[in-house]
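Journal club side-thread
Mid-discussion, someone asked how the predicted structure for our own chain would compare to the paper's figures. Pasting it here so we can look after the session.
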Amino acid sequence: MYLEYIVGPVVALLLGMKFTDFKTKEKADEIKALQEKITLIEARETELPKRIMATVLPVAQAVSKLNEQVGL
């Protein structure tokens, strides 16, 4: 008769703990995925200026040669 006064809260506590554990693991996976994205973006951030310089430098040199030939 008084068993449900004990079993009910214990079951609710166990379900709450399981749900909390599930959500914690879910958020940990999301954090890991975001950290990987940040690492990827940081890698791109260091490569981008090098690529831009490799692209712009020949164009700038060609423009300066052209200016010399034209007499500007």
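Post-session note: The chain has a mean pLDDT of 91.
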